[in-house]
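User: Hi! I'm working on a homework problem where we have to compare a predicted structure to a textbook description. Could you give me the structure for the chain below?
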Amino acid sequence: MKKEYETVIGLEVHVELATKTKIFCGCSTEFGAKPNTHTCPVCTGMPGSLPVLNKKVVEYAMSVGLAANCGINQFCKFDRKNYFYPDNPQNYQISQLYLPICHDGYIPIDTPAGEKKIRIHEIHMEEDAGKLIHDEWEDCSLVDYNRSGVPLIEIVSEPDMRSADEVIAYLERLRLLVQYLGASDCKLQEGSMRADVNLSVREVGSETFGTRTEMKNLNSFKAIARAIDGERARQIELLEEGRKVIQETRRWDDNKEYSYAMRSKEDAKDYRYFPDPDLPPVCISDEWLESVRAALPELQPEKMARYQSEYGLSEYDSRILTESKKMADMFEKTTTLCQKPKKVANWLIGEASRLLKEKGEDAESLWFSPIHLAQLTDLVDAGTINNNTAKEVFTAIFEQDVDPSAYVDAHGLGMVNDDSALEQAVSDVLAANPKTVEEYNSGKTKVLGFLVGQVMKAMKGKANPGKVNEMMTEKLNA
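Assistant: Happy to help. Predicted structure tokens:
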């Protein structure tokens, strides 16, 4: 009888925080600067330089912990994690092992079997390392220390996930939570959110964990899903052949869809942790903690419920709009200006989502002004332009953020409401299509749509469809 296996997965998610300066110095955290221009003696590990903790890092860590249902350690400390690597200028990383700032939380996810809580073991603060750039042409490796000292939180889950689908659901919920808090932009392509996957397999029914591996170099949700499926298959194949899974760190190559061993997996003892002597403990007062809790913004579940009760939107529309903070903000600002929530929702869920998909972008790329979308909605309601023309104008707003009124005037897109011009166009179409008129008179009333379409074509799409329909029906019935 063939054995069946269960996958056991836990994640270590690193999130770069959205502070303007680094965790222990005043250097900029801006992404994309020239190599080694955002550095100083502290973040490059010069002897004698002393770290000073950025208060905003602590507040971001607390807000994420509170939103993730964690307990907060109001007395926490920093520790030194000692290891040598060229992108680690001090030969140690300042992190938190013994007393992390957050502990024992959970993130709820939706599964086919219902809601499932993915437990969070801890969230701790630490500094990021630099970045190695491997130059294949020159056959050398260069190091950029701009990222060294950028503040991170590491969110460590319990091994509660059992499939790639659950992992992606957890990461999407976590990313949305952090984005709503404003704690990070969570751009995987820029490295501001990175996930290491700890995975093992065991026979179905077994209570004992198998030997786990850790996979790194995962910079998209699709890569994470492929890496999980690939590593699961690799481990099962080893066990089926009677071989052992080795506890190690592996690097996933998404182009080859293959992982390879980097190094044996370290334990805490290998890093020789000890309390950092240059940093005092962090003491969080009750007042400070409550001020952070009071400042927590409305998160997605609450926003969804409000959209349904306040704006009368469906659950589906509310979910789509709130799955991106950028889209939710766009919806609310536009609705405030024009007071037409359903019509604004339709533009964002329909045309905006379609154009984003065509460009291979997500809702975080939306950049046009809510003022212009509100004006477009008003133009349609006022009968200045029809729906088909409005789609053309929306595309121009989406791509160039044009003023819709000016665009309509410049391109002569305003609707023709001149009754005499419309009547002439209707008469011309009826005269040019006698067979279709006969079909209508014999009871085939569906041809009305064709005749109206011919008038719209003759008017270059600028006629009022409702008025054309009314005139056409009146003349045919006469």
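For your comparison, note the following. Residues 11-203+266-288 form one domain. The first strand starts at residue 5 and ends at 16. Good luck with the assignment!
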